[in-house]
Q: What sequence folds into this?
């Protein structure tokens, strides 16, 4: 990886950075070439063909078929190449690897808060292991922010009342600047942070030292399970795969459900959040629309915990875990 950077771009510190830079330099090179070609040709023609004395009208030239084909065909070919190149980079940035480590990001004026799988938290500092794909599940508590790490070439808006995601993989240990790329108020310029990439062993030590103890709190999954019972979710939603008044939570996350009135929806973070706050927005077919709204009852952290719990019921090893308990 490039740890120095160039005059135009910062260091390449993620697995996708080199592909983004190649596309950037390709477009820059094409732009410079045609700029010099057009300006150079215009300058030559101005100097060579300027009027030096009064003459008659210039001859009428209708068109030049060869020239017209060239100035139409060449740009089309270039645009197609840029599209193919750009689409490949887009796919790489959009499809998260299956083994990615998921970390919860919450944006608010004017700081970033990160919640790790073991319940640990950090503010304005994201700590990740080197050589491991990282998926950030992001939302905002107030206005639109934009998570931007220049060294990684990743940028994604962080929105209130819904989730967005972004992923990256940093192969080498180091520190990298986090910036907010969306104006979010007076403190926008101070809304910065850093990504601290550690070796796998150092990350494990940091995670152990930062873990939330039982006295201070519990993991999001465990907290979500306690909310599932204390808020009465168990009376309508089972966790053993058998539907009740409402759909079962077992295996729900990642599945596709058929909706009343036609259509379907994928059960992801945004769908679960909407179902908790606006349960009548998307009603699953064959189930009565009787679920009440939990607006004002559950805080964002509560909703995040319930989502984490529901997701844990859809992991591949869930059946084996239940078998071990028995």
A:
């Amino acid at each position: 990886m490039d740890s120095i950077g160039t005059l135009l771009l910062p260091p390449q510190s993620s697995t996708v950075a080199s592909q983004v830079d190649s596309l950037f330099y390709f477009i820059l090179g094409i732009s410079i070439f045609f700029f010099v070609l057009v300006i150079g040709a215009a300058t030559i023609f101005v100097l060579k063909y300027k009027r030096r004395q009064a003459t008659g009208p210039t001859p009428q030239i209708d068109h030049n078929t060869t020239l017209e084909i060239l100035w139409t065909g060449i740009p089309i070919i270039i645009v197609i190449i840029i599209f193919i190149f750009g689409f490949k980079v887009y796919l790489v940035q959009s499809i998260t690897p299956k083994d990615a480590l998921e970390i919860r990001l919450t944006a608010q004026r004017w700081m970033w808060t990160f919640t790790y799988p073991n319940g640990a938290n950090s503010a304005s500092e994201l700590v990740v292991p080197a050589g491991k794909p990282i998926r950030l599940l992001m939302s905002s508590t107030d206005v639109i922010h934009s998570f931007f790490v220049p060294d990684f070439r990743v940028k994604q808006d962080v929105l209130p009342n819904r989730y967005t995601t972004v992923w990256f993989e940093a192969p080498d240990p180091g520190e990298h600047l986090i910036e907010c790329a969306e104006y979010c108020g007076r403190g926008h310029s101070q809304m910065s942070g850093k990504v601290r990439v550690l070796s796998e062993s150092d990350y494990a030590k940091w995670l152990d030292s930062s873990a939330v103890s039982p006295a201070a709190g519990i993991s999001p999954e465990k907290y979500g399970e306690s909310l599932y019972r204390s808020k009465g979710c168990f009376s309508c939603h089972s966790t053993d795969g058998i539907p009740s008044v409402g759909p079962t939570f077992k295996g729900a996350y990642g599945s596709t459900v058929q909706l009343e009135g036609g259509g379907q929806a994928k059960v992801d973070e945004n769908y679960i959040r909407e179902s908790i706050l606006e349960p009548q927005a998307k009603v699953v077919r064959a189930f009565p629309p009787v679920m009440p709204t939990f607006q004002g009852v559950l805080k964002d952290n509560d909703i995040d915990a319930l989502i984490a719990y529901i997701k844990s019921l859809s992991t591949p090893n869930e059946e084996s875990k239940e078998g071990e308990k028995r």
In short: Residues 17-48 form the longest helix (32 residues). Residues 318-326 have pLDDT under 50 and may be disordered.
